[in-house]
Write a structure and sequence with these properties.
Blueprint lengths: L24 H11 L6 E5 L2 E5 L4 E7 L2 E6 L2 E5 L3 H7 L5 E5 L2 E4 L3 E5 L6 E5 L4 E4 L4 H8 L2
Antiparallel strand pairs: 1-2, 3-4, 3-7, 4-5, 6-7, 8-9, 9-10
């Protein structure tokens, strides 16, 4: 990556321009850091302990039985935030809502089965399966470029 700085006495506000042949994950991360919209810290509770959760290790976040849970590589955690609050905090380039009660990490998805009529089956890298609700199928297809 090349970095170039141009000084202009007439410039009142700094401006950053990124020139690339395609948008990559590195560019998205850089834009997030520069714009101040970096993902926020999440705290999960398990066995009476509070632990800081790394977003890249979270497979999915879902609501069940009036509680919100985060399923991560190292187990399931209870969260004290609502799904809409989590949706704002989670990295928008990796996490997407697939139903009123679930948000998934696209980086942890092994595949999508589109053969079901009206819905999409999501298989995670750990073998677990969930489904996109019909209401969110169009949104998921847009995110995937299908």
């Amino acid at each position: 990556m090349e970095i170039e700085i141009k000084l202009d006495a007439s410039c009142k506000n700094p401006k950053i321009i990124i020139v690339a042949n395609q948008v990559t994950e590195g560019i998205n991360d850089l834009v997030s850091r520069l714009s101040g919209t970096a993902p926020q810290i999440l705290v999960g509770f398990r066995d009476g302990r509070a632990e800081v959760l790394e977003q890249e290790k979270i497979c999915r976040v879902y609501a069940a039985g009036g509680k919100v849970f985060a399923e991560a590589e190292n187990g399931r955690y209870t969260l004290r935030l609502r799904l809409y609050e989590l949706e704002e905090r989670l990295n928008k380039s990796h996490f997407v809502r697939i139903s009123n009660s679930e948000i998934i990490n696209l980086k942890k998805v092994k595949g999508f089965d589109l053969s079901l009529a009206g819905t999409i089956c999501v298989t995670f890298c750990n073998g677990e399966v969930t489904y996109v609700s019909r209401r969110y199928v169009t949104k998921i297809k847009q995110v995937l470029g299908i």
